[in-house]
Design goal:
It is a single chain. By secondary structure, this protein is α+β, with helices and mostly antiparallel strands. The radius of gyration is 32 Å and the shape is rod-shaped. It contains three helices and six strands.
Length: about 130
Protein backbone atom coordinates (compact mmCIF):
# COMPACT_ATOMS: atom_id res chain seq x y z
CA UNK A 1 0.00 0.00 0.00
CA UNK A 2 1.28 3.43 -0.87
CA UNK A 3 -0.24 6.90 -0.60
CA UNK A 4 -0.73 8.62 -3.92
CA UNK A 5 0.26 12.23 -4.56
CA UNK A 6 -1.85 15.06 -3.20
CA UNK A 7 -4.35 12.80 -1.44
CA UNK A 8 -5.67 11.18 -4.62
CA UNK A 9 -6.07 7.80 -2.98
CA UNK A 10 -4.06 4.73 -2.24
CA UNK A 11 -2.06 2.42 -4.47
CA UNK A 12 -2.55 -1.28 -3.80
CA UNK A 13 0.01 -3.82 -5.03
CA UNK A 14 -1.21 -7.41 -4.86
CA UNK A 15 1.88 -9.57 -4.52
CA UNK A 16 2.27 -13.32 -4.07
CA UNK A 17 5.42 -13.99 -2.04
CA UNK A 18 4.84 -17.74 -1.73
CA UNK A 19 8.19 -19.49 -1.76
CA UNK A 20 10.16 -16.28 -2.23
CA UNK A 21 9.89 -14.56 1.15
CA UNK A 22 13.32 -13.88 2.61
CA UNK A 23 15.12 -15.77 -0.12
CA UNK A 24 15.67 -12.79 -2.44
CA UNK A 25 13.72 -14.62 -5.15
CA UNK A 26 11.25 -12.83 -7.38
CA UNK A 27 7.68 -12.48 -6.21
CA UNK A 28 4.60 -12.39 -8.42
CA UNK A 29 2.75 -9.10 -8.90
CA UNK A 30 -0.85 -9.21 -10.07
CA UNK A 31 -1.64 -6.93 -13.01
CA UNK A 32 -5.06 -6.25 -14.43
CA UNK A 33 -4.96 -6.84 -18.16
CA UNK A 34 -6.85 -4.68 -20.66
CA UNK A 35 -9.47 -7.40 -21.08
CA UNK A 36 -10.15 -7.37 -17.31
CA UNK A 37 -8.37 -10.62 -16.57
CA UNK A 38 -5.50 -10.90 -14.15
CA UNK A 39 -1.94 -11.65 -15.13
CA UNK A 40 1.05 -12.29 -12.89
CA UNK A 41 4.49 -10.83 -13.55
CA UNK A 42 7.74 -11.43 -11.69
CA UNK A 43 9.09 -8.59 -9.58
CA UNK A 44 12.24 -8.49 -7.49
CA UNK A 45 12.26 -7.09 -3.94
CA UNK A 46 14.81 -4.40 -4.85
CA UNK A 47 12.68 -3.04 -7.72
CA UNK A 48 10.12 -0.28 -7.47
CA UNK A 49 6.82 -2.16 -7.51
CA UNK A 50 3.97 -0.27 -9.16
CA UNK A 51 0.48 -0.70 -7.71
CA UNK A 52 -1.92 -3.23 -9.15
CA UNK A 53 -4.66 -0.64 -8.81
CA UNK A 54 -5.16 2.84 -7.40
CA UNK A 55 -8.39 3.77 -5.66
CA UNK A 56 -9.70 6.94 -3.98
CA UNK A 57 -9.41 7.07 -0.18
CA UNK A 58 -13.12 6.42 0.41
CA UNK A 59 -12.98 3.29 -1.76
CA UNK A 60 -9.80 2.19 0.05
CA UNK A 61 -11.53 2.58 3.42
CA UNK A 62 -14.57 0.63 2.20
CA UNK A 63 -12.24 -2.12 0.91
CA UNK A 64 -10.42 -2.21 4.25
CA UNK A 65 -13.70 -2.46 6.20
CA UNK A 66 -14.90 -5.28 3.95
CA UNK A 67 -11.64 -7.24 4.25
CA UNK A 68 -11.55 -6.86 8.03
CA UNK A 69 -15.19 -7.94 8.32
CA UNK A 70 -14.54 -10.91 6.01
CA UNK A 71 -11.58 -12.06 8.10
CA UNK A 72 -13.65 -11.74 11.32
CA UNK A 73 -12.20 -8.55 12.71
CA UNK A 74 -13.84 -5.40 13.98
CA UNK A 75 -14.14 -2.92 11.14
CA UNK A 76 -14.46 -0.09 13.60
CA UNK A 77 -11.35 0.48 15.71
CA UNK A 78 -13.55 2.17 18.34
CA UNK A 79 -15.40 -1.13 18.83
CA UNK A 80 -12.08 -2.92 19.20
CA UNK A 81 -10.88 -0.31 21.71
CA UNK A 82 -14.11 -0.73 23.72
CA UNK A 83 -13.57 -4.49 23.78
CA UNK A 84 -10.03 -3.98 25.10
CA UNK A 85 -11.24 -1.50 27.74
CA UNK A 86 -14.02 -3.87 28.87
CA UNK A 87 -11.55 -6.74 29.17
CA UNK A 88 -9.12 -4.57 31.12
CA UNK A 89 -11.89 -3.54 33.51
CA UNK A 90 -12.83 -7.19 34.03
CA UNK A 91 -9.20 -8.06 34.75
CA UNK A 92 -8.88 -5.13 37.18
CA UNK A 93 -11.94 -6.35 39.13
CA UNK A 94 -10.59 -9.91 39.20
CA UNK A 95 -7.16 -8.73 40.39
CA UNK A 96 -8.79 -6.60 43.12
CA UNK A 97 -10.86 -9.54 44.34
CA UNK A 98 -7.83 -11.83 44.43
CA UNK A 99 -5.81 -9.20 46.33
CA UNK A 100 -8.59 -8.84 48.91
CA UNK A 101 -8.77 -12.62 49.33
CA UNK A 102 -4.99 -12.77 49.76
CA UNK A 103 -5.05 -10.04 52.43
CA UNK A 104 -7.84 -11.82 54.33
CA UNK A 105 -5.98 -15.13 54.14
CA UNK A 106 -2.79 -13.49 55.42
CA UNK A 107 -4.68 -11.97 58.37
CA UNK A 108 -6.31 -15.32 59.20
CA UNK A 109 -3.00 -17.19 59.02
CA UNK A 110 -1.28 -14.51 61.12
CA UNK A 111 -4.02 -14.68 63.75
CA UNK A 112 -3.84 -18.48 63.83
CA UNK A 113 -0.07 -18.35 64.35
CA UNK A 114 -0.25 -15.87 67.26
CA UNK A 115 -3.17 -17.41 69.20
CA UNK A 116 -2.53 -20.39 71.45
CA UNK A 117 -4.15 -23.60 70.25
CA UNK A 118 -7.59 -24.37 71.61
CA UNK A 119 -7.51 -27.44 73.83
CA UNK A 120 -11.09 -27.81 74.91
CA UNK A 121 -14.21 -28.29 72.85
CA UNK A 122 -15.70 -25.08 74.28
CA UNK A 123 -12.61 -23.04 73.25
CA UNK A 124 -12.71 -24.51 69.74
CA UNK A 125 -16.40 -23.65 69.35
CA UNK A 126 -15.77 -20.13 70.65
CA UNK A 127 -13.19 -19.45 67.92
CA UNK A 128 -15.50 -20.58 65.14
Amino acid sequence: MTDQLAGFGVGIAIINHTGSAGAGLPALLMRLAEDGHEEWVEVHPAEHIPPTLTVPDDVGRALLDSLVRHYHGAEDTRALRKDYDDERSRNDRLTGTLATMGEQLARDVGRALTEPPATTTAAIRERM
